[in-house]
Amino acid sequence: MSRLISLTLLTKPGCHLCEEAIKAVDLVVSAFRDQNSDDVQLDLTEVNILENDELNQKYAEEIPVLQINGETHAYWRIDSERLIKALNDLA
């Protein structure tokens, strides 16, 4: 039975840091899936905070925010090496 890791990336349109974060997360997720396809299921969801008043109020000044299994992993900038380490630790 494989493990499930849930990633949530909180973003908003027109945010250049969000665009960078999306690229960084996509690269890490792709590499991680290639290496762990049999053992770990990785679910990635991007959420536009402008579509949710509560998220918009909470994270308006911190986006992008990356959550792993509901816990904040990073905000503003995504460190690819730190992210892959966190994913490997959970695998």
TrEMBL record:
UniProt-listed InterPro entries: Glutaredoxin-like (IPR008554), Glutaredoxin-like_YDR286C (IPR052565), Thioredoxin-like_sf (IPR036249)
TM stretches of this protein: none
Stated name of the protein: Unannotated protein
Biological source species: freshwater metagenome
Species classification: unclassified sequences, metagenomes, ecological metagenomes
